[in-house]
Structures are given as C-alpha cells and as structure tokens.
Design brief:
6 helices; single chain; Maf protein; alpha+beta; two-stranded antiparallel ribbon; eight-stranded mixed beta sheet; 217 residues; elongated
C-alpha cells in the first residue's frame, strides 16, 4: 500500500515550469522541510514501503543507494500513466566501519548505537535517486563524516530520555539535541539531517527540472 499526501501549500505564491511537477517519495518530515527551505514544495508526497533489511555482507554505501532506488522504482508504479513528474527518493545510513546501524525503534537499541558512536568518528551515507516519467534517472551517494564527543553517563541518559532518537538512523538527530554532542563534521550537514540538498537539487536540474520562481518575477 502506498500512502499519498499533499505537501504543505507553501508554493501558493510560486510558479513552476508548465506541466512539470515534483514528487517526494518519503515519509520523513525532515526531507520535506529541507526541500521547502530551498523553495521547493512537492506537488505530492508518497510514502514508499520497501523491505529495508540489509543483505548479508552488504556495504553501507551500496545499501544506501539500493534503498533509494528501490523506493523510486516502487513508487513509480503509482505514477504510471502520468507524465512530466520528477520523483525524488533518498535513504540515510549511519555506519561504523562496515557495520550498518539501525533506525532505532527501542531505547536499548538507541543506547547501543550511542555507546558505539561515543568518542569516535562514523560515516553517514545519503543515497539519492531522481527518476523521471520517461525512465531517465540520476543516482548518487553522498558521504559525510561525523564525530561524537565522548558521552558521559548523564549525557547519554538525558538524550535517551528525550526520545529524539526514535526512528532515527544511528539513534540520533543532528538537527536536534544531538547537535550539542557533535563537535565536528566533514561534508554535507543536510545529508546527516536526511537529504544532501545541494546534490539533490543538482540532480533534479541535470534531468531538466527547474526550480519554481516567485510569481511576478
């Protein structure tokens, strides 16, 4: 089952190229907010439903790209018969070495992630796929390196008590309270939030999508 929603009507004062429309294939409010921050309001938001189980010995970079493409291919079926759409999907993977950390669903799972990340560097891989109505696509993986401070017991317990970790890759949200626990990153900040924005916009434009312009300009 594919769930659909209409994006927040922030584009009421904007005009897009005739006929072209953007579809965001993600249930993440962070990805939608990042696009809106850049002046893009998707015409539709679709929620993909794919099996997110990593394959045996699958590398984090490959997994991030496979997930992004799998989401796009699944959602493209819901758009079959329509024209002029650009579908954007993404997946965020937190990894320590070759180990893929889960999207924490329980406190103990989040605790294990944070204890592993404490005082060390890790990588965040953002898989992005842009698929057009005519089958053309662009795909890439963006890598960001992140370092956590060494967490005290109080810091760990306080963060777990916040509940912010719930559903987050690696058990943390850099745009929230976890920002105070991360003294260093190298690479795209928005990639860690959920979508490497510069790269995603470049991919859209490379396939012919044009950003909306305010009316009257």
């Amino acid at each position: 089952m594919i769930c659909a929603a209409v994006a927040s009507p922030t584009a009421s004062s904007e005009a897009r190229a005739p006929g072209l429309f953007l579809v965001l294939g993600s249930s993440s409010p962070r990805r939608l907010a990042l696009l809106q921050q850049a002046g893009l309001a998707p015409a539709r938001v679709l929620t993909p439903e794919v099996d997110e189980t990593p394959r045996p010995r699958e590398l984090p970079r490959h997994y991030a790209l496979r997930m992004a493409e799998s989401k796009a291919e699944q959602l493209a079926e819901a758009l079959a018969g329509e024209r002029d759409w650009y579908l954007l999907t993404a997946d965020t993977v937190v990894a320590v070495g070759r180990r893929i950390l889960p999207k924490a669903a329980a406190e103990e799972e989040a605790r294990r992630c944070l204890e592993l990340l404490s005082g060390r560097r890790h990588r965040v891989f953002g898989g992005v796929c842009v698929l057009r109505w005519d089958g053309r696509r662009s795909r890439r993986v963006v890598e960001t390196r992140v370092r956590f401070k060494r967490l005290s017991k109080d810091e760990l317990e306080s963060y777990l008590a916040s509940g912010e970790w719930r559903g987050k890759a690696g058990g943390y949200a850099i745009q929230g309270r976890a920002a105070a626990l991360i003294p260093w990153i190298n690479g795209s900040y928005t990639n860690v939030v959920g979508l490497p924005l510069v790269e995603a916009l470049t991919m859209l434009e490379g396939l012919g999508y044009r950003r909306p312009r305010p009316c009257g300009r």
